[in-house]
Amino acid sequence: MKKIGLTTTVPVEVLIAAGYTPVDLNNIFITSNDYLNYIDIAERDGFPRSLCTWIKGIYGACLQNGIKEIVGVVEGDCSNTKALIEVLELRGIKVYPFSFPCDHKLEDVEHEIKKFMDVFNVTIKEVEIIRKRLNKTRSLVKEIDELTYIDNKATGFENHLYQVSSSDFNCNIDDFDVELKNIIYEIKNRKPIVRKLRLGYIGVPPMTTDIYDFVENLNASFVYNEVQREFAFPRANDTLDIYNQYYDYTYPYDTNFRILELQKQICERKLDGIIHYTQAFCYRAVNHIVLKENLNIPILNIEGDKLNVLDARTKLRLEAFLDMLLDLKEAKK
């Protein structure tokens, strides 16, 4: 199967039905031991330092890994993607644009996905067969999520890893199934670990994945990863078809739509506080104003840039925030 790069989660059901192997360029970038090289490639080619690291990393990962075709989300994700795909086209990469309509009407979402299917010459029947197959795997990922916030057996990082990997199923759906079944078996045989604080992580997946281990050492656990969970489509089996599935997907639409699901999860998962991660130079940082105003829970906003580990200042802020949450919890008792 031919590889096709993704700048973010898109209707992969269409691509797989068309005979492609989707490859999430974000995952290639962030898991690379040489991730800084991808950033350097972009900056040598003229990308400014004052630009989101993820965009530069995607660019470098695309060029260095022999990706000849990509799907670029030009509406509903990063505001810099339009510029990114123009540069990639200059480098000879074939680009297929896709949009999540900002007005968030079902008929508009359906229209965009039908256009996408026409571009790749597949039918709704073919796409639905693939969707049902992928949703079996997504059910396994959902089980890991439940082992995190209900059973207290899966770690926050495991929760993050397997959900974020659902954007492209690690490029091999059958192998990913086997990996998921093995890790679920292992997790189920663990003893529960209950820490004093239950945290939610919201915002784009972090550059600094050591945040999960860091908070655990401070008697806290992440039991909710917002965007990663959306990448895994936890409500997919309850939707009628692919149009409704991507209409129900909160990440690309307005903040108020996100807030409805956030409020539900804060209550269901009994969260004590939220860490809101934003990336330097990203417009989504402004969303923090709306989120903080509408969510009745303590929220700490932290920002990442090029480092893939937490810096000293962020660690201090996290420690102070968790201390405050512990004091609040003790005061309520």
Automatic annotation (TrEMBL):
Stored Pfam families: HGD-D (PF06050)
Organism: Clostridium frigoris
Top-level taxon in the UniProt lineage: Bacteria
InterPro entries: FldB/FldC_alpha/beta
Keyword presence, Ubl conjugation: no
Names of the cofactor(s): [4Fe-4S] cluster
Protein name per the record: 2-hydroxyacyl-CoA dehydratase
UniProt record similarity statement: Belongs to the FldB/FldC dehydratase alpha/beta subunit family.
Keyword tags: Iron, Iron-sulfur, Metal-binding
